Amino acid sequence: MDGFTSPLIGDHSDTERTYQLELRLGADHARRRLATEHEREALFLSRTGKHVHPENLYSMPGLVRLALSLGGLYQRAVSNSRALRVTRNRFVVPGLPPALEGYTLLQLSDLHVDMDEANLHAVIETVRELDYDLCVITGDYRRDTWGDIAPAMEGMRRLRTHLKGTPLAILGNHDSVLMVPEMESMGYRMLMNESLCLEREDAALWIAGVDDPHLYQTHDLAAATRDIPPGALSLLLSHTPEIHTEAARAGFDLYLCGHTHGGQLCLPGGIPLTLDARIPRRLGRGNWMEDAMQGYTTTGAGTSILNVRLNCPPEVTLHQLSAGPDSVGQ
Fold it and tell me: Could you give the CA distance from residue 104 to residue 132 in angstroms, rounded to a whole number?
């Protein structure tokens, strides 16, 4: 995987991006996804051009800023949003092949790289010092859910130079499918309802990734699992935890996601005011289980609407695989 290079060349022209996308996904898939984006964007716009989706309301950042300022919390909340931490999580997988013992995944999510320059700098400075085997990124690169992708793509280009190997990535609800050829030209490997097999010695780990299940609902678990052998060790990358039930039924062992930001603005004790997802609250942050499948919902590295956080620190996460407490090397 480290030798992966894409045949696609990035370009800032939407026409060129569309052509590249059709080469990558097939004309039918690409055109249907773009048509869905245009339809969704039209729903976010009133006749006067004002954005009516909650994440895109022109007044929303000002309202949040005013509320925090009146409570004397605004500067603290901004500082919190840039205080990135490294969270370490251990997945105990019974029967894990010895060759995968200690295998470590770096998960990044909800970067919103064009939101706040200080936050992007914190991410870059943090990840460049970390030791891991594979980086996976679970979506949301752009600040808004509409508009020009160029600022977000520039941020992802800067980040890419500090990531080891070939990062695997999926799209979130803030992302345009036009990002796929652009990001693959940078050396990211996009999983669009696809899977790949990671091999180490005589062990195999299948990693699948689906398109956004939240806003666009263009995920396709059947396509993502098509090549995975029955009983194989498998991990799903999904932007949101909203398809946890279907993923468990599909036989995935592990599930990594983001989207919720852990609530971003939480009450003391980390109680979220909202998670913006159709999920039980137990899935909103950290570790969880669905039948035999283990999941993790990261609070994400970036912010949405406004670069503020309360009682919910931003994070990048290192997930280590282990067969159990008595494993070699523990």
Answer: 5
